[in-house]
Every structure is written in structure tokens, then in C-alpha cells.
Automatic annotation (TrEMBL):
One Pfam match: Dus
Keyword tRNA processing: yes
Source organism of this protein record: Exocentrus adspersus
GO molecular function annotation: flavin adenine dinucleotide binding; tRNA dihydrouridine synthase activity
Protein name (Swiss-Prot/TrEMBL): tRNA-dihydrouridine(16/17) synthase [NAD(P)(+)]
Top-level EC class as recorded in UniProt: oxidoreductase
Keywords: Flavoprotein, FMN, NAD, NADP, Oxidoreductase, tRNA processing
InterPro entries in UniProt: Aldolase_TIM, DUS-like_FMN-bd, tRNA_hU_synthase_CS
Family: Belongs to the Dus family. Dus1 subfamily.
Needed cofactors: FMN
């Protein structure tokens, strides 16, 4: 508990690490609205260790951005340690991501898809804990049973984890199948370990924070989506969306970040307004915007539309606008987005499937049926795809081994014709720094610089002649 009190300042209200969403400007905005601790987005440890540009962007911070925890994902203890050593001077702790349930984590073999490999996880946490000067924390998802979840938490504690964030959902609970987080698992872990436990899941308003702390006994709560839709969630306020939106744009201009992050935040802040069919043109406009000025114009346009209602000049009738009937608050106010239950989602999917099947049956009674090689009925589109595949030439049996080789500087595949035996990105960096050409990748840095110098000298010569 000393780490939680002394290094972090006993934070209770915490903003979760969110890919492409918890960047510096958003963290600063969240802190203005009551957040006591923030995390960086999930950072890939191998890329962080090898790519200086990625590292510089990931560590963007300032004095106001404290306390801060840097989160890494990965499955190699040595690489994660090297990444941690490079980041430890910029944060209060290093967090190991063991909770990401997305497909990219499954492909990369990290996040929640490591939760069954306890010897590896013990090695990762123990290696970081023994060799870093800052504490190591972990963020996990629960197992199907309380007993397994508690054993998992104890294992991480014994490996050296100094603070544990427990998400009350399994790794299968995501997207439309998210459902509710089960706080009883958080409570069981809190009672079984001696380190601070943070509860994650089901936080959509300040009342949820109070209830979660009472039910779980956790020292703090973490929210992700609740914060994205309403950054003032920890102040128990629901400001008009244009207020935090314009504040965020000011911060994004001071601390630049990719425009895709900015666009994503604006879509979340104005989610309920943009869900109204009559505002579809503004949704399209926001999706196409690619400058800060365009973002500001759209925000001001929305403000002019709804400010009269907000100030009481006009009367807002909730039932008259399609898409807002189920909201407790007017749509221009920041408020949580409540997902449909998994049961309702599955029921709707099944209803749509049956409906589509009936319509297809009615429409195709007189149409030709197509079957694959095993006699299964398929669509005409699928049949044409199978025919295209069958006409493709066979691949050579003996491909050169070099095609399977990796770049000498990273894990990307080697360029088959590269003069320096590198992938295209590493080759481009090498040519830029060392002023080289690579015909295999068609990178002509040396040639183009020579031409630029030649043209520059010619222009200087022409000016000398004119002056003479």
C-alpha cells in the first residue's frame, strides 16, 4: 500500500489505458475533470524498444501529466525489460497489459491471451520487478471461476506485482457480447491479496464509483468508455459536449497528436447527437474532416444548433427526435453510452438471420442454386470467388529460403531484393541517414539529393550571371 499512497498519492478515480484514446491531450483533459491517475495507451514493447520515433511519441508528457503509469504489452521478458528500462524515468510505474481481449492481441500473442501461461507471466513480472527502479503493476481479466481468478492474482503478487487492476469480465466478453462486469470477482481478489486492487468495469457515473468501492473493497475504480463519452464523469457533471470538445482541441493544438485520435474523441463526445438521423450530414462531415479548423467548425455548428435548447430559449421535446427516446438526458449533454445486453443482441441476430433466410428463399425460388465441392449451397458471389481461386496458378514448390528470412533490424519479413537485407521501413531509414540508394526497394535518396544539389548549383549560377 506504500506505493499506492506515496508514489501515486492514493488515487481513487482512474482513467484506463486506451489504444488511440488515452494520449496526452485527453489525459490532461481528464485530469481537469477530476481524474487522479492516468495510463498511457497500451504500448508494444518490441516497437518501443527498437523504434526511437515510436518511443518519443509514446512518452509525450508534461508536468501536469502526473502521476502517470506506462503500460506495455508483449510476451518476451527480455524485450519487455529493455522497454521498461527506457520508460522508467518518465513514469511512476510500469504496467503489464494482461487484459486486452481484441483480435490484434490474439494475433500478437499478448494481453488476455497470455492468461493461461502462468510460468511465462511469472517470469515477465518477476524480471521487471527485480530490474526496474519503479514498481510493476498488472491489469487482468477474470477467469470463469472465482477460485481460478484468485489463484491468478496470488501468482502475480508473488511474482512482484505491486498493484493489480481486475476487470470483472472474461476475455470473451467484448463488443456486442460485453455484458456486465461481475464485481464479486474483484471483491474475492481484494480479500485474497495484500497489494492494492483497482476495480474495472461498469463505471458509467459517479454513483457507480461509490457503489463499486462499497461492494468490492477496492482502493480505486478505473473507467474507459465512461470517460470517453463523458470526461466529467468523476465530477458527477454532464456538460454540453461542445465544452470539453473545444477544451480538448486547445490541448491537442498545444500537444499535437494524430488527427485520427481527435476525430475518434469527437465522435464519442457527440455520439448521441450524431445518432439523430437529421444530423447524418454532420456525421459524414466529421468523418471527412482532416484539419483542426474543420473540427472546430463542426463543433461550433453543433453548438449553434443545440445551445438555444440548452439555455432554455427553445423547448426540447425528447420524444420528437428519433434515436433519443431512451436517453435520460438531452442528447447534447455528455453521458454514457449503454450497450444492449448480449441476450438482446443474440436474439436480434437470430431474428435477422431468419428474416433474411425467408426473404432470400422468396426471392430465389426461380433462381439457379449453386453448390461448392462438398455439395453445400452457396451464393453466386461465393461461387464466383471459388472459380477465381481455382484459376490461380500454383505457387512454386521450392520458394527461396530468403523469402522466409527476417529483417536484420526488426521482426518484419526481409525484402526479397533489398541490397542491405532489410525490410522496407528499415531500408528507408538507413538510406535516409547514410545517403544511399536501394534499387530493390526503389529508394533513391542518394540520387535525388545529388539532383537537388545539381539544380541548386545551376540556380546559383544563373543568379550570378544575372547580377553580372
Amino acid at each position: 500500500m506504500d506505493f499506492w499512497r506515496s508514489a501515486l498519492g492514493s488515487p481513487v478515480l482512474i482513467v484506463a489505458p486506451m489504444v488511440d484514446a488515452s494520449e496526452l491531450p485527453w489525459r490532461l483533459l481528464s485530469r481537469r475533470y477530476g481524474a487522479q491517475l492516468c495510463y498511457t495507451p497500451m504500448l508494444h514493447s518490441a516497437m518501443f524498444y527498437k523504434d526511437a520515433k515510436y518511443r518519443k511519441e509514446a512518452l509525450a508528457s508534461c508536468e501536469e501529466d502526473k502521476p502517470l503509469i506506462v503500460q506495455f504489452c508483449g510476451n518476451d521478458p527480455k524485450i519487455m525489460l529493455e522497454a521498461g528500462l527506457l520508460a522508467q524515468d518518465y513514469c511512476c510505474a510500469i504496467d503489464v497489459n494482461l487484459g486486452c481481449p481484441q483480435a490484434i492481441a490474439k494475433r500478437g500473442h499478448y494481453g488476455a491471451f497470455l492468461q493461461d501461461e502462468w510460468p511465462l507471466l511469472y517470469q515477465i513480472v518477476n524480471t521487471l520487478s527485480k530490474n526496474l527502479k519503479v514498481p510493476v503493476t498488472c491489469k487482468v481479466r477474470r477467469f470463469e471461476t472465482v477460485q481460478r481468478t484468485v489463484e491468478y492474482a496470488k501468482m502475480l503478487e508473488s511474482a512482484g506485482c505491486k498493484m493489480l487492476t481486475v476487470h470483472g469480465r472474461t476475455r470473451e466478453q467484448k463488443g456486442p457480447l460485453t455484458g456486465l462486469a461481475d464485481w464479486s470477482y474483484v471483491k474475492a481478489v481484494r480479500e485474497a491479496v495484500k497489494i492494492p486492487v483497482i476495480s474495472n468495469g461498469n463505471i458509467q457515473c459517479m454513483q457507480d464509483v461509490t457503489r463499486c468501492l462499497e461492494e468490492t473493497g477496492a482502493v480505486g475504480v478505473m473507467t474507459a468508455e465512461g470517460n470517453l463519452y463523458n470526461p466529467a464523469i468523476f465530477k458527477s457533471e454532464n456538460p454540453p459536449a461542445w465544452v470539453p470538445a473545444l477544451e480538448y482541441l486547445e490541448l491537442a493544438e498545444k500537444y499535437p497528436c494524430p488527427l485520427s485520435y481527435t476525430r475518434g474523441h469527437l465522435f464519442k463526445l457527440f455520439h448521441h447527437v450524431l445518432s439523430i438521423p437529421s444530423n447524418n450530414h454532420l456525421r459524414v462531415k466529421l468523418g471527412a474532416a482532416n484539419t483542426m479548423e474543420q473540427f472546430k467548425t463542426i463543433i461550433k455548428e453543433l453548438r449553434e444548433m443545440y445551445k438555444p435548447y440548452h439555455e432554455g430559449v427553445k423547448v426540447w421535446v425528447q420524444r420528437t427526435e428519433e434515436g433519443t427516446q431512451n436517453l435520460l438526458l438531452p442528447p447534447w449533454l455528455c453521458q454514457s453510452y449503454v450497450r444492449d445486453t448480449p441476450e438482446n443482441h443474440l436474439r436480434k441476430v437470430e431474428e435477422n438471420r431468419v428474416d433474411c433466410k425467408m426473404r432470400a428463399s422468396n426471392n430465389n425460388e426461380n433462381k439457379r442454386c449453386y453448390e461448392d465441392g462438398e455439395g453445400n449451397r452457396i451464393s453466386r458471389k461465393k461461387m464466383k470467388k471459388l472459380r477465381r481461386i481455382s484459376r490461380r496458378p500454383e505457387k512454386p514448390a521450392n520458394l527461396p529460403e530468403r523469402c522466409m528470412e527476417k529483417c536484420q533490424q526488426c521482426d518484419n519479413p526481409l525484402g526479397s531484393k533489398c541490397m542491405f537485407r532489410l525490410c522496407k521501413k528499415c531500408c528507408k531509414d538507413k538510406c535516409f541517414v547514410e545517403e544511399l540508394d536501394c534499387k530493390g526497394h526503389r529508394i533513391l535518396v542518394k540520387t535525388r539529393r545529388a539532383m537537388a544539389k545539381m539544380y541548386a548549383s545551376q540556380r546559383i549560377g544563373e543568379k550570378v550571371v544575372e547580377v553580372a
